């Protein structure tokens, strides 16, 4: 536990340092209309006249693209027809989740995708399982919590999540999304987001720049972004498709997309960085040091006081070990000298 805590503390420092380092790079953004979806949704879903295609129960109205109505056993999606070859990008999602169900009697949620596959129905928020690429999920039903309650068990305070919950996952085509545990085993990170039945607008922000994935939310009606997750070392190939999907089961909700706005980010890179990225071509989605990141997330699940005392006692323990080592070495050295005299 001592070395685990010290290593986690070091990783956290490095992660924050990298975050500040990225802010030093100048960045410009440009709206890419061919990858964006907004009112009045002209031609969406019609053959050959739009960049976006509807699937399943999705339908277009004057106010939104409704992925699912507030009805049981529905699933729908909207997918871009054009693959995205941008190196750095930012997606701003204006969405709404609302329905007649009371708290924890609604479901199941929606997802924003950047994947190799498109237009394939499935159980993962209306998309196929074992997908290849990135999924950011707004999960509105706590499957694992309900199962634990049925077994007369409960979460520990450090592992409990509050739903709706936003999380991200990177799949390589062979990793399955675990419904029973609400994606806990494969999540990169996440945050709670009370987004149901709000009267003000709700937004999701997904940025991928310099192989760093950042997700933020704006759900409080204050027009301020709140951090959700920030993960370095995320490797996503170019040429994948953007999409949004949703699903309902025995419980339901209206899942609406009001807009998807994609921005191309222009980031200044050194000649060395450009060369390194050209040589390191990404063909399969992956995340660097994934197990190490999970370790950091586990420690972050502790309270601030617990983290403080864990780090404090870890450092004291390290000092104690150094002192013991010095004393032992001094005794050994003294004994060694006595043998020679």
From TrEMBL:
It comes from the Eukaryota. InterPro entries: Intracellular_Lectin-GPT (IPR051136), Lectin_leg (IPR005052). GO terms for molecular function: D-mannose binding; metal ion binding. It is found in: Endomembrane system; Golgi apparatus membrane. GO terms for cellular component: COPII-coated ER to Golgi transport vesicle; endoplasmic reticulum membrane; endoplasmic reticulum-Golgi intermediate compartment; Golgi membrane. The chain crosses the membrane at residues 307-329. It comes from Solea senegalensis (Senegalese sole). Residues 1-21 form the signal peptide. This is VIP36 isoform X1. Residues 29-265 form the L-type lectin-like domain. It is a single-pass type I membrane protein; Single-pass membrane protein.
């Amino acid at each position: 536990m001592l070395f685990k805590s010290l290593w986690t503390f070091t990783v956290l420092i490095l992660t924050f340092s990298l975050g500040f380092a990225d802010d030093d790079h100048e960045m410009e953004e440009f709206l890419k209309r061919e990858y964006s979806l907004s009112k009045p949704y002209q031609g969406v879903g019609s053959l050959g006249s739009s960049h976006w295609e509807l699937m399943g129960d999705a339908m277009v109205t004057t106010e939104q693209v409704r992925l699912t109505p507030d009805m049981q056993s529905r699933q729908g999606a909207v997918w871009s027809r054009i693959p995205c070859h941008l190196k750095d990008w930012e997606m701003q999602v204006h969405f709404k989740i609302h329905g007649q169900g009371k708290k924890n009697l609604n479901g199941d949620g929606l997802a924003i995708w950047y994947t190799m596959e498109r237009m394939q129905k499935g159980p993962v928020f209306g998309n196929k399982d074992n997908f290849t690429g990135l999924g950011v999920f707004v999960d509105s039903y706590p499957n694992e919590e309900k199962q634990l309650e049925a077994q007369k068990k409960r979460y520990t305070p450090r592992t409990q999540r509050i739903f709706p919950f936003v999380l991200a996952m990177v799949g390589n085509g062979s990793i399955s999304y675990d419904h029973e545990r609400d994606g806990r085993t494969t999540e990169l990170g996440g945050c709670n987001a009370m987004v149901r039945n709000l009267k003000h607008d709700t937004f999701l922000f997904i940025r991928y720049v310099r192989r760093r994935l950042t997700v933020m939310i704006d759900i409080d009606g204050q027009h301020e972004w709140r951090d959700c997750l920030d993960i370095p070392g995320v490797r996503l190939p170019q040429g994948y498709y953007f999409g949004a999907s949703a699903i309902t089961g025995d419980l339901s909700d209206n899942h609406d997309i009001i807009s998807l706005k994609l921005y191309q980010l222009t980031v200044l890179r050194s000649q060395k960085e450009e060369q390194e990225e050209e040589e390191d071509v990404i063909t399969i989605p992956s995340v660097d040091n994934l197990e190490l990141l999970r370790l950091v997330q586990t420690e972050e699940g502790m309270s601030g006081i617990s983290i403080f005392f864990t780090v404090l006692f870890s450092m004291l323990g390290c000092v104690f070990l150094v002192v013991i080592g010095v004393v032992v070495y001094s005794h050994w050295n003294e004994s060694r000298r006595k043998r020679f005299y």
